[in-house]
Amino acid sequence: MQVKHEWRKKEKVIYLPKNCPEIIDVPSFKFITIKGEGSPAESSFANSVSALYSLAYTIKMMPKKMDTPPNGYFDFTVYPLEGVWDINDEAKANFTGVISKDDFVYKLMIRQPDFVNESFFKEMLDIAMEKKKSPLLEQLYFEQSSEGLCVQMLHLGPFEDEPESFKVMEEFAKSENLIRISKAHREVYLSDTRKVAPEKLKTVLRFQAKRS
């Protein structure tokens, strides 16, 4: 009997760091992805997340119903939501030290297991679009990317307190002769904000770095 792949048990190095900075080399992974901009409080953000999960669960469940599952198929736990965050070019050009949430640009994504490829993604997307009439499903795309050398840590608490954790991470990077490549960063959401109080949220923070 095949054992379900559970990322919380099998990939702790990637997804369950400690509440202190560490160096990690993140390999290439496959993702379903959608881009957006503006405050995460806007409905477009929640709708983007909903579209991603709709497809993610289609990819998880449909192979169990297929006469011939995709090559290399195995059962798995759906990976957590991730987001790569930055600010738009206008905000960068006129930066005053204060960031407005309205200036955010982001890329939301959910990692996919190795058996998922471009053609299987398109097949599952068509099925998801038949079941859920969401225009945002049309904006989802498939990509493979590698972060490479990074600094990461587990942030405990509200999203608004993340700058404190990033300050600790940057000081750690400096002590390790690392330079942060850009202010863009990745967040991996381990908590469900609908069920967990802000002070108890768990979020993996990660930024790319290079040797000085």
TrEMBL record:
InterPro entries assigned: GyrI-like (IPR029442), GyrI-like_CCH_Lin2189-like (IPR008319), Reg_factor_effector_dom_sf (IPR011256)
Gene3D superfamilies, per database record: Regulatory factor, effector binding domain (3.20.80.10)
Pfam families: GyrI-like (PF06445)
Signal peptide residues on this chain, from the entry's feature table: none
Domain GyrI-like small molecule binding: 21-205
Protein name in the entry: GyrI-like small molecule binding domain-containing protein
Native source organism of the sequence: Agaribacter marinus
